[in-house]
Amino acid sequence: EAYIVLQNDFAKNVNRRVFADTYIRFFIHAIIQSNLFELINVNRRAPQNLICSENHKRFDMAMTVFHFEKDAREQGLLIGNLLFNKLAEMNDDLPDRDAGIAAYIYRINNRFEKLQSIANRLEEVPAVLIQYALMPVDGIWMERMEAVRHAQELDANNPVYLAACAKLEEEAGDLQGAELDLRAALDIWPDQASWHAWLGRLLESTNNLEDAAECWEKAVSLYPGDVEYLEGLMNVYYQRGLLTQALDAGLAAVKLDNSRSKIWSLLALSYRSIGNLQDALLCAQKSSELARDECEPRLVAGEIALQMGDLEQATHYSQSALMLNPEDDKAVQLMADI
Predict the structure, then answer these.
(1) Residue 309 CB partners (closer than 8 Å, separation 6+)
(2) N or C: which end of the chain has fewer CB within 10 A?
């Protein structure tokens, strides 16, 4: 209903500057916030971050009215882009008080020269610097990193800038630097579950599975109903050989969402590792049903069926995998074993 009201008012007042001063700003802070949070993996229910908000009460109201649940975000961003474009048309040379808004408009519309210009002019405004730093432009990584580092110096207690540093470092392959900045961000926002999960993924990539498990455990403890966190926890448990814990995490995950092929595949591998081939095959079959275009679940099912001595089912899954990818080495090997 809020979207409808906003659209109707937009249609009636599209050329009135007062509209830009009220409705657009009312909406724009929530949109910028949601977009920033999405770029640096912040949970929607994160602690309030006000770096882009010149009117905190309106920002609070906007985040309440426009919830930004996953199913509403696409519509919200679509409407937001229309509003931003209209604001830019009404006043192409946006004043300094709208600097954060202008920087965001220019970034999402790929007007990088405009964004670079405003960043050069307002190099002491963190809300501008972070938009510049998050530009997806090749060849200026060092400049982007310097911008977000400076933003972090200007607002040292805001962990969003540290997370943005981590994002850029990960982008450049500096995983150690990303880990350090992400840990520093978590020192400020220790209840930010998605950052714990992000850190867990970073640590997995460097094969630090013990610390990675602790990160995933923290994420799950903060949001026990998040299936992605349970899947991440299950995966790292499986890699460490903690099969009972892996099964517990996987079974908790499928109770929440039984449509994720990867979880069923991990359950199959875990059951096989403890010698429960019957349940392993059932889980592998479920995984292959959900991932109809992937070879791996069929190979797992075929290997388990072969291990059970069920050559008919093993052949079925092997042939199914080969039909998807005739050159898959594992599928060819499985057929040879059969």
Answers:
(1) none
(2) N
H or E segment at 236? helix 227-240
**Rounded mean pLDDT of 46-66?**
38
Q: What is the pLDDT of residues 241-293, one digit of tens each?
A: 999 999 999 999 999 999 999 999 999 999 999 999 999 999 999 999 999 88
Across 72-76, 217-221, 324-328, the highest mean pLDDT is recorded for 217-221
Q: How crowded is residue 37: how many other Cβ atoms within 10 Å of its Cβ?
A: 18
Residues belonging to the chain: 338
Classify each residue of 279-308 as buried b or exposed e, where b means 16 or more C-beta atoms within 10 Å of its C-beta.
bbbbbbbbbbebbeebbbbbbbbbbbbbee
Global model pTM greater than 0.85: no
Amino acid (1-letter code) at residue 40: I
What is the C-alpha separation between 226 and 117, in angstroms, rounded?
41
Residue with tokens 């990818």: 325
Phi, psi for residue 92 in degrees, rounded to 5: -65, -35
Residue 12's pLDDT band (cuts 50, 70, 90) = low
Q: How far apart are CA 107 and CA 105, in angstroms?
A: 6
DSSP 28: H
The residue whose two tokens read 């602790």 is 214
Report pLDDT digits (tens) over 167-181. Answer: 999 989 999 999 999
C-alpha neighbours within 13 Å on the C-beta side of residue 254: 20
User: Can you read off the two tokens belonging to residue 160?
Assistant: 């969003």
Q: CA 185, 208, 295: angle at the middle one, nearest 5?
A: 105
Structure tokens at 273: 């590792």
Task: Give the Cβ contact number of residue 157 at 10 Å.
Answer: 7
- Rounded to whole angstroms, the Cα distance separating 258 from 252 reads 10
